Amino acid sequence: MARRRFFVDEVRNGQAEIEGDDAHHLTRVLRVEAGQMFEITDNSRVWLAEVDVARKNLVRFAVVHEIDRGPELPDTVLYMALIKFERFEWAVEKATELGVTRIVPVEASRSERGLEGGAKKRVERWRKLAREASEQSRRLRAPDVSDAIRFRDLVSVGSGVRVWLDEQAGAPPLADVLSAAGKEEIGLAIGPEGGWADPEREQFAAAGWKGSSLGPLVLRAETAACAALAVVVQARIQSNQGDAG
């Protein structure tokens, strides 16, 4: 069984610490005790470390040795329209598990009123959720969760292959759109309940984004995000296999 991995702010003089609520979670919920071995990462390197101190508000690790950090995740940015927060949080967690490197909340024209203001108060919670999901999935880096932006600012951001999901008939399958993405950054825009409005579709097209489809069924926004990211993962695997061949 793979060891649990935890994020630390820094490793200094062969030691690292986790304090406060995070330490309380480790000791009271995960039952971390002195003498146990875990992996720790500072978002750039990974070490095998032994728990030296395990108290309510402090967990201290002593580094044993550095270990292979594994392959880098290609840049995949999820531009997620704001939806009800409990569902948005679920999307943040699952998108992190599926390897997204950045999550950008977007206020779309069909996002419920008041969600953008609420997002300002929630963004730190979303970052914590992404960090916890990164630990669970043994990632090297936790994804960045940005402050919310408005749709008018979305269409001009990003690089590489930029795709919006469109439930209207006639959009090409997402897998086909991503077939030539290679290692380019992939930007994936998921609409709110009711989908993107017609003016938003027009702005996407004018800015060079590509419309795509996940099939004939209408999915909830958070389900669509997970399904689309699974297609992205498969496209990355196929690209790597092609490079190896």
> How does the overall form come out from the CA principal axes?
globular
Rg, Cα atoms, Å = 20 Å
Distance between the termini: 31 Å
Architecture of the largest domain, according to CATH?
3-Layer(aba) Sandwich
Q: Total number of helical segments? A: 7
**How many strand units?**
12
How many independent structural domains? 2
Strand content: 25-35%
Structural class: alpha/beta
The CATH first-level class of the largest domain comes to Alpha Beta
Order of helices and strands: EEHEEEEHEHEEHEHEHEH
What name is given to the CATH topology of the largest domain? Answer: Alpha/beta knot
Describe it:
The chain is an alpha/beta fold. It folds into two domains: 5-67, Hypothetical PUA domain-like, domain 1 (Ribosomal Protein L25, Chain P); 76-244, Alpha/beta knot, CATH 3.40.1280. It is 35% helix and 25% strand. Strands 6, 7, 8, 9, 10, 11 and 12 form a seven-stranded parallel β-sheet that branches. The mean pLDDT is 92.
